[in-house]
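Our example pasted here:


***
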Amino acid sequence: MPKDSIVRIWKATQLPPNWFNRASQSNEKAAEDIEKTTKNIVNRVVSEGDKALIELTLKFDRVRLNPEEIVVHRPEIEKAYASVSEEQISALKFMKKRLSRFERPLLKQGRYKTQVKGIKITSANYPIESVGCYVPGGLAVYPSTVIMTVGPAKVAGVPRIVVCTPPNDKGQINPLILVAADLCGVDEIYRVGGAQAIAAMAFGTETIKPVRKIVGPGNRYVTMAKTLISKDVAIDMPAGPSEILVLADESANPILIARDLISQAEHGRDSIVGLITTSNRLAAAVLNCLEEMVPLVERKEIVEIALEKYGFIIKCRNTDEMINLANTFAPEHIEIVTINYRKIASKITSAGLILIGANSPVPLSDYGAGTNHVLPTAGFAHVFSGLSVLDFTRRVNTVESSREGLQNLKNHVKVLTEVENLPNHYKAVEARFENE
């Protein structure tokens, strides 16, 4: 790999050990420090409640809140509408509509009835009682995250939906976040961010009542807080820095590939962006495009650091090698830009979201395709799916048996209860036939 390359360059046959292990990219001491700091924050919120929220907001967000300012009240939400354009409101409504259109059929598919020899089973999804949605904020603005977290919860029928988001340096919540929350029907909004917000939603304070489940992305402290509280409160999934992996061949446009890598790199300095290709010509062309584009892009400092630390290009001998590496990596987003992209997509078994063809970049899914952009990262696509309406429900089965149905299973129950030495289980069945 050239020392002055803007990204790391490898041949598939010469990859370093554990190239795909993001955890190895983090300093172990730093990870321990994050866990220790986060534990202290969570413990403070548990023991001190609102007092801790106010002091931690002053420490981390440099905003001094009064206890009554923790809650975002209705007049502030109504005032927010005057600060946003009709075009912005229309875009938020469009995203919400598209997402709901995709989510509703998922909910319906979870309802079914079946009947076999006198036994009826009904399966249905019921909404979780309360959900907390974390929305990153402060200097950044992510109204799309409001739509992606609150929208499915609303479709699921969750009766109480809470949003926590940090204030800016003036103590304000961005009006677009407030408008998005209002459009989605959020019940409560709190001016609290970071690990302290996760702790507050998990365990409650004087102002914030606890919820049953917490969802949404965040920084490393938020992610650590979600991990720590997950033994007491359900969470959506572990989360980490945003990722894109592009699989491409000779047919791909190097300018578009470079643009897609840059667009994902601007998420943050620890964003992971990679190209895996069978074409040496494309690899060189993409590298050249990056070197020309990056010095001129907006958010240049963030993009440069992300590419330097976590950007890579891997050159493969054939398509099978590309596919194997992609499935090993299990990226958050994977773009497939090849001649036979559908065939390759059918062989991708581990990814948060698969985007195929030259006209399906990640921003399409982020802002309007209808799929959710809260996706598993850090290799968790091996075992987790993207956020959906199903994450806001729990399945409940109902069983009704006729006397005939129970009779048909009576001997099977006897055999298995004897094997497991649970004689009273069988007697509970047998008792129903004693007077025959």
Q: What stands out?
A: The CA atoms of residues 153 and 246 lie 31 Å apart. The radius of gyration is 25 Å. Residues 402-433 form one domain. The first helix runs from residue 28 to 48.
